[in-house]
Design a protein that fits this description.
This protein is α+β, with helices and mostly antiparallel strands. 43% of the residues lie in helices and 12% in strands. The longest helix is centred in the C-terminal third of the chain and has 18 residues.
């Protein structure tokens, strides 16, 4: 069932109508998949006549998690209202954009004043509509919702696919009085003592499977101690179910898969190249004694030093970079590189102190272009 599990982990869901081969492969492995997800991760496998998906509940909420298509809290609010609207729409039932926008205005909470005359709020809804379409919860049959950003009078005809009712996770308890993501996650284990038995096992497996790395928070970190004490079992499960090797270091642990794994790192994009090249340069500086690594295996530098590192990385490797990154202003490039590293738990930035902390995962892998590719006239390889 390794391939089926990896497929489920790699995508949000498998829609039977669009991908029947993988849907039925998952159905054939249903018993084994449910057992592994229940016993090791404490997660549910949703499998019905329309979709197959894992309810991916993280072991710990982190800043990089979330829907990458959405940018601000209002986006999420409009998404929830849109899902509530679609709840009453059957499969293939049509509706118009003006009906949805009217529903949102009427149903939005008082503290969220929706005004479609405001351009930024129309852009928020456009992002939500694009997400709904990307996840195949709606079909756009006439018109273009991109035009709504320019005019609130824009009309678009949609068709509901009926998949929206499977998008949200089902909660066993009322979460409306929860004040944080940590509180919502904690409700799963209300009847179980924290940091003991099944709770710790589920949390550690989730951190390893759903996240890129586990970092030790100190000698009393119960989760990291669990990794150390049960590394043989964790390693065997990683190999048997995910075709991955468990790598445990003094301050970090991660599953490293052999070959390619969909959304794993490195990705098939130029930003992954840049991250690997930065890693190579950091390792060079440390080996030469120019930078000192802390006791927690992290490397802290000023924002200015990080900007200089990115600039020199571009000078060294620009021939292989996309034109966008070659010509981008340094400040903007640094922002994008840093955001990418943070999304992979490779770096942490402190805007107040203007510092950047390089985390161990950032230098786990490194990469460089072949010298024959990089050394060109006017672009010496440093």
């Amino acid at each position: 069932m390794t391939e089926e599990l990896q497929k489920l982990l790699d995508c949000f869901w498998i829609v039977r109508e669009e991908d029947p081969e993988w849907y039925y492969r998952v159905r054939e492995q249903e018993t084994a998949l449910r057992a592994f997800l229940r016993d090791k991760l404490g997660c549910q496998l949703v499998l019905n006549a329309h979709v197959a998906k894992i309810e991916k509940v993280p072991g710990e909420a982190q800043a990089w998690m979330g829907l990458q298509e959405l940018q601000q809290p209002l986006d999420y609010c409009l998404l929830m209202l849109s899902l509530a609207y679609l709840e009453d729409k059957g499969s293939q039932e049509q509706f118009v954009l003006s009906d949805l926008t009217e529903y949102i205005v009427n149903m939005a909470p008082e503290e969220t004043a929706v005004d479609w005359t405001v351009f930024s709020q129309r852009r928020c809804l456009v992002r939500v509509l694009k997400l709904l379409r990307e996840y195949r919860m709606i079909r756009m049959t006439d018109g273009d919702h991109e035009e709504f950003a320019q005019s609130e009078e824009t009309e678009v005809l949609y068709e509901s696919t009926g998949l929206s009712r499977y998008f949200m996770r089902n909660f066993a308890t009322d979460i409306t009085d929860s004040g944080s993501a940590a509180e919502i996650l904690g409700r799963e284990w209300l009847d179980t003592a924290d940091d003991r038995g099944i709770v710790r096992r589920h949390r550690v497996y989730r951190k390893l499977v759903f996240g890129p790395v586990i970092y030790s928070q100190g000698p009393d970190d119960a989760d990291f101690l669990y990794v150390r004490n049960y590394r043989n079992i964790l390693g065997k499960d990683g190999a048997d179910y995910l075709n991955a090797q468990l790598h445990v270091h003094p301050t970090s642990a991660m599953l490293v898969q052999e070959g390619s794994w969909g959304s794993g790192f490195p990705e098939g994009n130029n930003m992954s190249d840049i991250a690997l090249q930065l890693s190579a340069m950091i390792r060079e500086h440390v080996a030469e004694g120019l930078w000192d690594v802390g006791a927690d295996d992290t490397l802290e530098m000023t924002r200015g030093a990080f900007e200089e590192l990115v600039d020199r990385c571009r000078q060294r490797n620009a021939e292989g970079w996309y034109k966008t990154y070659r010509e981008m202003k340094l400040e903007k490039l640094v922002q994008e590189v840093l955001a990418y590293l943070e999304s992979w738990n490779m770096a942490l930035s402190d805007e107040r102190l203007r510092t950047v902390r390089i985390l161990p995962l950032a230098v786990k892998l490194q990469g460089q272009y072949p010298e024959s590719f990089t050394v060109k006239e006017g672009l010496p390889y440093e």
